[in-house]
Amino acid sequence: MPIRRKINRPVEAIYIHIPFCQHICDYCDFPKLQYFRIFADKYLASLKKEIESYNVPDTIKTIYVGGGTPTALEDDLFLELLKIIKPYNNKVEEYTFEANPESLSLEKLQLMKEYGVNRISLGVQTTNDDVLKKIGRKHTFKDVKTAILNARKVGFDNLNVDLIIGLPEVEKEQFQKDLANVVSLGVDHISCYSLTVHPNTAFFLKGINEPKEELSRELYDYAEQFLKENGFVHYEISNWAKPGKESKHNLTYWKDEHYYGFGMGAAGYIEDIRYTNTKSISKYNSGKYRDEEEQVDRKDDMLYYLMLNLRTNRGIEFSDYLYRFGINFLQVHQETISRLVNQGLLVLTEDRIYPTYDGMMVLDQLIMELSE
Prior knowledge:
nine-stranded mixed sheet; three-stranded antiparallel sheet; alpha/beta; globular; TIM Barrel; 2 domains; 15 helices
């Protein structure tokens, strides 16, 4: 019987969810609620208790604070959040905060810098002010430029911006402008996510449709070409980075490694259990944290490993797969791999396979064929 990988390896990543927003965007389906101080006060107290209940080791290398909008907190509560996290960031290599341009003040940037934050992820979505207004965003492209200028001024040298592919009224020409605009600001990392319309969002209720597959692929093709020409590496399906600026935290997910998830609606993966916290603020604030758990067995883990690692340009390293599952991946899938290489969907080297750009665009096909 092939061996199972060790489950007690060090946990090196923490995700913290701050669900509060100053406004609710029309497309958003993340666990979130309108910001009210009375809820935020109780939430931070409950968050502190949840984190302390896990006896977090001193092996943490990445922290990611997302939302919601962490920067929606008032300055004193924002400082309280940073103080809650401080005991866990002594050995951290990458410490990210998500932010919206309109709430990323100079004061918050200075606080983050003081408390060891070294990466900012900015929700931009598009640089067209009219479209931003129509989708419920409260910032302008001028706010984006100001936020990035202030972040550089304070000393941040690792900045990501998020863009959405397929927003209403954003066809190819506008998307080209969006990419050109954010690249001109000298950012280090760009995430491009295709619009997904979720039930019960304003987009869903308005009858807005997701982009057609042909348009989505055309826009991804353009992003691939344009960003490559401007020095970015396409290292994950939806993510491009300047060399050395890849998101270390997100690579934890894509390598199928363990991580803590704290906060309302947060997901975590420790001791081979994938768990999701409650999305109810009242339950969370009363100390009832976990909502769902999945015990990951060997078969499930092999599928997770395949699905996640094939999203990236590092792909599947044969020695790592052998160590974790006791299986020679190349030997078992030699015929399928050769066929996918000949189709231009995979690259085979001495020590690994990884997807080409075309392979990334048909990831489901790769997973299906390599999991048989």
